[in-house]
Design a protein that fits this description.
Strands 7-8-9-10-11-12-13-14 form an 8-stranded mixed β-sheet. It has a 4-stranded parallel β-sheet with strand order 3-4-5-6, with no helix packed on it. It has 350 residues and is an alpha/beta fold. The protein is 32% helix and 22% strand.
Length: 350
């Protein structure tokens, strides 16, 4: 076959076999997977280009049953990417969903599949979209629980802007926090995901600063946000102030304060300054400061803690439960008798 180009120039089928990879890639981009599969049979060069394009966007949905209990497609794909790392550089979208016909399907051999998948993701540093819906149990005490472990890497995923995860196993085992730390866009993910969704509980991790614009976007959930967990980040008074201005519908607040050494030398009485910030949380009933580490052996000053409970409740009348860095829990009880605070170790009246 001969194709005429500008008179004397021509392209033969033979010469087309030796096109530069860049030109061949531009020609083949956009072809359907079935056509790319046919292209891959032409020559070794064409196969390399076709495979690179085929592995740029991966969508795998597997139904697991008694006759087919393992996600073999996921395993074969992950092994190919792991063994041919050049394919990982072109991987932009990775969407994997497992479904089960008969409920639980947690087999020991799944650890091999999950390990290969983790290694493949570790190599795919140009990812733009990652969706993993694996259906694994989220409770670590599950008798057969296994977990997907995110790759341990210092490489930043600069292009990754969309992350959707569910059923990846117990959070404590999967290094999700470390993985999100190497995502430059991770700090903006909640602001992009929450608007319009019925989210009542939220866990934030990462840096100790959240822009006001992101916080204002987090208020656009379809139902009021009720539970906020900040135990995986250091919370400064400035951040707590910004939270009180934007997320004041919170009923339960768990915080790791960035005051470790200050509390060690000045004592917990310093926390009385939080009263005016807590007053902005109009529905706050539980304040959990137990993630805050203080450099002492856990000795609790009941008098100071009781005083703080009273001070905070004066500012925030809805407050009913406080857990201090000493791990001592105080609960405000109301009834026919005089209202009183109960601690986990003793009873003291207001």
């Amino acid at each position: 076959m001969i194709v005429e180009l500008n008179g004397e120039q021509c392209l033969t089928a033979h010469s087309a076999l030796f096109l530069p990879n860049e030109t061949l890639t531009a020609i083949c981009r956009g072809l359907s997977p079935s056509v790319l599969t046919a292209v891959a049979r032409v020559s070794r060069q064409w196969r390399g280009v076709a495979e690179w394009l085929l592995y740029s966007n991966i969508f795998i949905t597997e139904t697991l049953s008694a006759s087919s209990p393992f996600p073999y497609s996921t395993l074969r794909c992950s092994q190919t990417i792991r063994l041919q790392s050049h394919l990982a550089s072109g991987l932009h979208k990775l969407h994997i969903r497992w479904k089960s016909e008969n409920g639980a399907y947690y087999e020991p051999h799944f650890t091999i599949i999950l390990s290969n998948l983790s290694q493949a993701i570790g190599l795919a540093t140009n990812l733009e979209s990652l969706d993993l819906h694996l259906g694994l149990p989220s409770l670590p005490e599950h008798p057969t629980s296994i977990s997907f472990t995110f790759p341990s890497t210092d490489t930043c995923y600069h292009s990754l802007r969309r992350v959707s995860l569910s059923g990846i196993g117990p959070f404590t085992h999967n290094r999700l926090t470390d993985f999100l730390h190497v995502l430059p866009a991770a700090q903006h993910l909640p602001a992009a995901i929450l608007p319009g969704r019925p989210v009542q509980s939220l866990v934030l991790i990462g840096q100790d600063y959240i822009p006001d614009l992101d916080l204002s976007q987090m208020t656009l959930t379809s139902v009021p946000l009720r539970h906020l967990d900040l135990s995986s980040m250091l919370v400064t008074p400035t951040l707590l102030r910004n939270l009180s201005r934007n997320l004041n519908t919170v009923e339960s607040l768990k915080v790791k304060l960035a005051l470790r050494h200050t509390l060690h030398f000045a004592g917990i009485g310093l926390l009385a300054a939080l009263s005016h910030l807590l007053g902005a949380f109009r529905n706050l009933s539980t304040l959990d400061l137990s993630p805050t580490h203080v450099d002492y052996t856990g000795v609790s000053n009941s008098t100071e803690e009781l005083s703080l409970c009273q001070s905070w409740q004066n500012a925030c009348p809805s407050l009913r439960r406080v857990v201090f860095p000493s791990q001592t829990e105080w609960t405000f009880q109301e009834g026919d008798k005089t209202p009183a605070f109960y601690s986990s170790s003793k009873f003291l009246r207001t």
